[in-house]
Amino acid sequence: MGLLELENVVAYYGAVPALHGISLSVDEGSVVAILGANGAGKTTTLRAITGLVKVAGDIRFDGKSLTGRSTEDVARLGVGHVPEGRGTLAQLTLLENLQMGSCLRHDRRGIEDDLRRIYEYFPWMKARGSQVAALLSGGEQQMLAIARALMMRPRLLLLDEPSLGLAPTVTQGIFRIIRTINEDQGVTILLVEQNARTALRAAHHAYVLEVGSIAVSGTGDELAGDESVRRSYLGY
Amino acid sequence: MGTELLLVAGISPQGVVQQLVFGVATGGIYASLALALILIYRAMEAINFAQGEMATFTTFLAWTLITQVHLSYWIVFPITVAVAIGGGIAIERVIIRPVERAPILTVVLVTLGLFSVFNGLSGLIWGYTIRTFPTPFPVTPVFIAGVGIGVQDLGLIGVSLALLLLIYLFFSRTRLGLMMRSSALYPQSSRLLGVRVGWMLALGWGLSAGVGAVSGMLIAPVTVLDPGLMQAVLLYAFTAAVLGGIESPVGAVVGGVVVGVLLALVGTYVPGAQDLRIVLGFVVIVVVLLFRPGGLVGRAHVSRV
After folding, report:
1. A82: part of which helix (H) or strand (E)?
2. Does this complex have an ipTM over 0.90?
3. Which CATH code of 3.40.50.300, 3.40.50.2300, 3.20.20.30, 2.60.40.1120 fits the domain covering A4-234?
4. pTM, whole model, 2 decimals?
5. Any chain B CB within 8 A of the CB of A104?
6. Which of chain B's residues have a Cβ under 8 Å away from the Cβ of A99?
7. Pairs across A and B, CB distance < 8 A
8. Model confidence over A66-115: pLDDT tens digits?
9. CA B33 to the chain's CA centroid
10. B9-53 tens-digit pLDDT
């Protein structure tokens, strides 16, 4: 059984169904990608997990049901969610953004260690702690969002379009960090991407969403290698 | 030459200095209540119209403890603040929480309802007789460079300053203060980090009721105590908040002092203006909103309609 299991999950925005009963599984220690076009339900899937949209069906994390739990309770179970738009605490400083990530932890030593590790991943952050987050570039805000979620020391990290609006080189850097986080810290990652090529290279397993249902799934290599899947669903 | 002209107009330099000090002292109180308003406004984008009446209620509580139970002002002071904080939290949890996600107008109407409730309660329990509230400061003036200045005024300035400094340190230096700021500005992001945003809002109400309680206990010895104690003060605090750009704590403090000094000078030196002070508050609000809607120190701010 996976660390995260979705079974027949249906989500609504008002009366409009956004997910028509999707099932997926994320194994502990893996990187899983959800791909698909705009409006396919990728973001909704992540929002369903952290209780930001109402759902029917079963969502289990580490054996515990998440359905009906409040967003803050899901977070406290160890799910870090970097939302669409990065969730930057724009008027707070960079350091305050990081401190908010660890605001519920009491292991002072552990927090310091994590902060040190963040500075190893993103050395530019060290000297800019007092800068207001709104003044950071898009790529810097994305890195800050990931770093903030890491300060929660999550078991599962949900990333909503980490490449959105970023230059290709910046995107590559971010995906390098995502892999490092997964390999070094063993954080399980579920990410949503429109940039299929980059996401498939990082993912162990991938699902392709199409208008609220899962169309195809397989390992990253399988999907990337399958000509027809590539042409019909991934658009490259 | 200049001095002679002033004397002819009945204005002595000593008098002006005294009025300035009095203005800063009352301004600090307006600033405190303005800060209480802003604490809630930043989280809900709604003005708590009951802020003043809640403070009046706790000031009456303090009056009872001081004059009936015969406790000293400085023992009653922290007790009253603690009661106010607890009451503020309870009000948010019980009365505001059900309308938290309702349109702003609903929240505003609820606070107007609270205004009536607390105003009525104060009247019901303590009546409408005007009472004097004991001052914790000596009434004798001290002479600084030949100008007699009320010790009470200096005391008020001191307590307001200490209060503002405490609030500043709480929000800028403590983890809880950071969590409250983040929750007010970015509720969804804060929830995703595990923060119980609803409780942070309740704490905000508690804190603002506590700050309001302080302003009530400071202003009551300067004026008189009746169920209408804070109504004019709330208007001046609101004026201060608008002057400061409604969202800025620093702006509110600057605005409070400006309003305090303005009211003191106009009330003393413009014939008949003592009775027009309330009107003056409204005039300042209208003028600021017309010409500098972002406040003196703030920026104009466009909002979705």
Report:
1. strand A79-82
2. yes
3. 3.40.50.300
4. 0.89
5. yes
6. 175, 178
7. 63
8. 998 999 999 999 999 999 889 999 999 999 999 999 999 999 999 999 99
9. 1
10. 667 888 888 889 999 999 999 999 999 999 999 888 889 999 999
